[in-house]
């Protein structure tokens, strides 16, 4: 199967990216900032009632932070290092939420000293740390959700707690002098089943109602997380369908008493803007009669393509070579046998593909450069250019 670039990029945009890419040595990612700007506008247009917190972990390039800051975005931050980086770009601490539930007390303190007053949590120990290190701050509790089987990159189990514990934590937050502010969840990244938001919002509604009735706590905010789709090989509904459905779920549960709504998109804002350009190092077969060819490329699992683990994310791959296609196994350049990107899912590449030919991995603007190892087998981190 060969892909059509037009299904992923307007011809003029791809021509601009390719002309730039032609001047660079592989491997690298080219990010088209206009595409990110459009994705932000589209999300904002579809969720006019929500505040957007960009999940910086998806791609921490300063150019993206500056662009989204100029557009009025807020930022979901995972570590003190990300915090320093976004503050240096002119982001104000009021625009920041410390969204990582796993953090050191001294890092909470650092956020507080920088002026951040909004923290996620999902455990009593972390909550007590927040109360000490960031007194009086707003806290929201992350709950566990369903949806791991329909998300291409699930985020369940490790984060969040059951609703009963969430309620206990919010009561404890008040006792500790914090502001019990709201509930968050993340239904899994690249979530293809929109209905999982319905179940999650239902749980949130239950928590809002019970806390108000039993403890007199009025929560003010729901953080609907990320999970909105990027354009890979496995198709999803369009963003408009996500927005219509999620808005309906919210209205069914909250009617006219809609709390503050936060979205934390990462992938859906930046993935489609990126093209990773790699070069074929070798094409070989394991025996004379072997049906499949191995295509080794100068980028792999350890240099930005870790989301090919279990072949979870299937990036569209394009090459200029035309002609008859044949199934291939695609692997990276390191001396580690785990460095195979696709083996079970059959990518077809042209029979005449040869060393030196370029592969264009589309939709690679999210979770690629920041995942790249620093020196595995001596290979340097994956380069990135913003145009
Ligand atoms: C707390 C939090 N918020 C938001 C995101 C972004 O999710 P996505 O890339 O699916 O939009 C993540 C991703 O790991 C996350 O951990």
From TrEMBL:
InterPro entries in the record = Ala_racemase/Decarboxylase_C, De-COase2_CS, De-COase2_N, De-COase2_pyr-phos_BS, Orn/DAP/Arg_de-COase, Orn_de-COase, PLP-binding_barrel
Q: What is its EC number?
A: 4.1.1.17
Q: Name one Pfam family in it.
A: Orn_Arg_deC_N
Protein name, UniProt field: ornithine decarboxylase
Q: What class of enzyme is it?
A: lyase
Which organism is this protein's natural source? Thiopseudomonas acetoxidans
Provide the cofactor list for this protein: pyridoxal 5'-phosphate
* This protein's pathway: Amine and polyamine biosynthesis; putrescine biosynthesis via L-ornithine pathway; putrescine from L-ornithine: step 1/1
User: Catalytic activity annotated for this protein?
Assistant: L-ornithine + H(+) = putrescine + CO2
Give the source lineage, highest ranks first. Bacteria, Pseudomonadati, Pseudomonadota, Gammaproteobacteria, Pseudomonadales
């Amino acid at each position: 199967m060969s892909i059509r670039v037009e299904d992923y990029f307007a011809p003029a945009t791809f021509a601009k990216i390719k002309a730039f890419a032609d001047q660079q040595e592989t491997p690298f990612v080219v990010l088209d900032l206009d595409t990110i700007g459009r994705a932000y506008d589209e999300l904002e247009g579809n969720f006019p009632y929500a505040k957007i917190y960009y999940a910086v972990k998806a791609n921490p390039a300063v150019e993206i932070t500056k662009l989204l800051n100029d557009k009025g975005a807020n930022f979901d931050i995972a570590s003190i290092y990300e915090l320093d980086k976004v503050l240096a770009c002119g982001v104000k601490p009021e625009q920041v939420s410390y969204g990582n539930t796993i953090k050191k007390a001294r890092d909470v303190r650092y956020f507080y000293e920088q002026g951040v007053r909004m923290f996620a949590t999902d455990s009593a120990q972390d909550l007590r740390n927040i109360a000490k290190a960031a007194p009086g701050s707003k806290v929201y509790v992350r709950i566990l959700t369903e949806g791991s089987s329909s998300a291409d990159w699930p985020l369940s189990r490790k984060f969040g707690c059951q609703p009963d514990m969430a309620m206990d934590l919010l009561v404890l937050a008040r006792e500790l002098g914090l502001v019990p502010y709201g509930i968050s969840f993340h239904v899994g990244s690249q979530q293809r089943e929109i209905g999982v938001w319905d179940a999650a919002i239902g749980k949130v509604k239950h928590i809002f109602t019970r806390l108000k009735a039993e403890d007199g706590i009025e929560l003010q905010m729901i953080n609907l997380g990320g999970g909105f789709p990027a354009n890979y090989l496995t198709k999803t509904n369009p963003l408009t369908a996500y927005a219509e459905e999620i808005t309906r779920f919210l209205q069914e549960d909250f009617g006219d008493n809609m709390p503050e709504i936060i979205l934390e998109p990462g992938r859906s804002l930046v993935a489609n803007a990126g093209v990773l350009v790699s070069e074929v190092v070798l094409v070989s077969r394991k025996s004379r009669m072997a049906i499949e060819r191995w295509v080794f490329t100068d980028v792999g699992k350890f240099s930005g393509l870790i989301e090919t683990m279990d072949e979870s994310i299937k990036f569209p791959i394009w090459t200029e070579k035309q002609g008859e296609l044949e199934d291939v196994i695609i692997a990276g350049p390191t001396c580690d046998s785990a460095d195979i990107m696709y083996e079970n899912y059959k990518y077809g590449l042209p029979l005449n593909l040869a060393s030196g030919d370029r592969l264009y991995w589309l939709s690679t603007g999210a979770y690629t450069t920041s995942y790249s190892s620093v020196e595995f087998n001596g290979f340097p981190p994956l380069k990135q250019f913003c145009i």
